[in-house]
UniProtKB/TrEMBL annotation:
Gene3D superfamilies: Glutaredoxin. Residues 50-69 are annotated as: Disordered. Pfam families: AhpC-TSA_2. This is Thioredoxin-like protein AAED1, chloroplastic. InterPro entries: PXL2A/B/C (IPR032801), Thioredoxin-like_sf (IPR036249).
Length: 260
């Protein structure tokens, strides 16, 4: 049966305490869907933070409350992540043309997640189509740049398109799911069994060493976003582990929007 074999591909990790189950909350952003899978605006949501953490949210997330539909690009633009190639910090707004440039921003779970190795391999194999459409590919994962380089070297994946978000700043800003239930018990996760051959191929050179040292990172879910300049054209939050955005949907958005 496929299920036991697939389960064997998951790295053994000691589960962290549910640090985000306390009564302290911060405002994040919820995506409000419209027909066709696109997202026209955002609304504030309450997402739990570790017990003892101040309730104040980041300035960029708070400022987006006044006009969330037009300012999510501004909010994300100020988030600092790290280049896997150099280890140096970089802001999202410096990764693509903020006026007319198009970008696909794929937020993986973490660099030690086998399902994310599969997603990264699909993105790598699709990069030529993104390039032909004039779209910048940006893949982000939870962990440090050295963990990102493990995935890049062993999968392989082009380093220049890979970034690390060890503090999960972008994930929190975008309101991506986090928690034990989402990670291990969400019904959406069974979709991965339909891609078992792809998963098996992607993890041929897998190593658990790519897993974040901060084990809370293994409870983070990812998502997929398409921007034209600062405008959010498409957004999808993964409901569970391996519940990735349909790539055809992402490509349809990229190919239908004129690129200057």
């Amino acid at each position: 049966m496929a299920a036991p074999v697939a389960a064997s591909l998951l790295p053994y990790v000691s589960l962290p305490p549910l640090a985000r189950s306390g009564a302290t909350y911060s405002r994040g952003l919820d995506l409000v869907s419209l027909p066709g899978g696109r997202y026209r605006h955002l609304r504030l949501r309450r997402s739990p933070l570790p017990a003892g953490t101040a309730a104040a949210s980041s300035p960029s997330a708070s400022s987006s409350a006044s006009d969330p539909g037009s300012s999510i690009g501004d909010a994300l633009g100020g988030v600092e992540i790290y280049s896997a190639a150099t280890g140096e910090p970089v802001l999202f707004r410096d990764l693509w043309d903020q006026n007319e440039g198009m970008a696909v921003v794929a937020l993986l779970r973490h660099f030690g997640c086998p399902c994310c190795w599969e997603l990264a391999s699909v993105l790598r194999d699709t990069k030529e189509r993104f390039d032909s459409a004039g779209v910048k590919l940006i893949a982000v994962g939870v962990g440090t740049p050295d963990k990102a380089r493990i995935l890049a070297e062993r999968l392989p994946f082009p380093l220049e398109y890979l970034y690390a978000d060890p503090e999960r700043k972008a994930y929190d800003l975008l309101g991506l799911y986090f928690g034990l239930g989402r990670t291990f018990f969400n019904p959406a996760s069974v979709k991965v069994f339909s891609r078992f051959d792809s998963l098996k191929e992607a993890v041929k050179n897998y190593t658990i060493e790519a897993t974040p040292d901060d084990r809370t990172g293994v409870l983070q879910q990812g998502g997929m976003f398409v921007f034209k300049g600062k405008e959010l054209l498409y957004a999808r939050k993964d409901e569970g582990t391996g519940d990735h955005a349909p790539l055809d949907d992402v490509l349809n958005i990229c190919c239908k929007v004129p690129v200057s």
